[in-house]
Amino acid sequence: SxxxxxxLIQKTGGMRCFVNFDAKLKNVxxxxxxxxxxxxxxxxxxxxxxxxxxxxxxxxALTDDVIEKAVHTLPSSVYAMNxxxxxxxxxxxxxxxxxxxxxxxxxxxxxxxxxxxxKNESFSIFTAGDSLVVTVxxxxxxxxxxxxxxxxxxxxxxxxxxYGGQDIFEVDEKAKSKIRITIxxxxxxxxxxxxx
Length: 196
Hints:
Layout: H1 4-11, H2 28-31, H3 36-42, H4 48-61, H5 64-71, H6 76-95, H7 97-110, E1 111-115, E2 121-128, E3 131-138, E4 143-150, E5 157-161, E6 168-171, E7 180-184, E8 191-194
């Protein structure tokens, strides 16, 4: 990704995932740009603590010994040229993983997408302390499908899509937050009990 042509393509948005393999991990957001929609949909229940725990697990697994042994499996001619530099960069990128990946978490958390289904669900919004809590319950199965506490420090807006089914949307009268809520009921005879 070095050179002025790849840099021009990257800057104009043509290939945002073109980044250098440097000692410091950076541009995780750009590296992941093709999965933004997927990640917003399927990682939307994970909190910052969940992300940090996952990062810690990866860092603990990628010990110096693991990295060195992995790089030594390269063909000897390749290792002779770049092996030691590759090891050094991998160790450095592992050490900076938390700082850079949490930037991507904050990007995803700015606008959170919560999707229902074509079945009957109940969406509840209330506050607990300084947090705004969103829960989704399957009304037929009486089973919790989703729950997460949101902080206005991380999240600017939440978009809730009910899609099909006879959904219920409830906002507690004491619910108060700076976070903007958008509710799209979708198809079906939905009920709205908006008090907050």
